[in-house]
Amino acid sequence: MFSKLTRKVNHSLADPTSPPHAGQQGVNQTLTCLALPAPDCVRRGVFPMHGETCPLPASLARHVMDAGQVLFPPTMPAFGARHAMPEPALRAPGMGTWAGQSLKDLSPADLARWIADAGFAPPGGESRTAHLHRVARWLETLSPTPARVTVVADATVVRAITVAALGGTAAMLSRLDIAPLTRTCLTRHATWRVAVSGAPLP
């Protein structure tokens, strides 16, 4: 969530302008995940308040118009894309009593544990492990139709979707670099594959 506190690894898996390789021909479904810009408070080192989500910026709007279905967290302001509907599972991790607090005001020991232990949850909040399980359950039950689905959500949610698609654990979340205002593309043909990860949006 905060680049200074987590070790990031560049995880771009493909050039988004290149054609799909042979293994991607005839895929049943494409899931495009668009990462929203980070709230202003995050840039100041403050955890977002409950339900604080950026509206869909104009730079993302054109990427959702052709999707058969567009899914977004219910905390996000509605937008005019056709077939758009809120999905509760796409909420960012709940920060409990840490919501709205500055990093410098938190206990250094608790903050260090939160960074190091994916199973640790802020008081009244949600651990990264619990968040990943929530997103993984949603991905497992995602209908195979329509063929093109777009998710618009916080970068932490896109990261969790990608790890869940790969069958990974919460330990992988801090090793996957998916920034705000990027595009991640998954394809499904029997199993999920990651075609593009964290590609900057034009």
Automatic annotation (TrEMBL):
Biased composition (Basic residues): 1-10
Name this polypeptide is given: Bifunctional RNase H/acid phosphatase
Region of interest: Disordered: 1-25
Protein's organism: Komagataeibacter europaeus
Tree of life domain: Bacteria
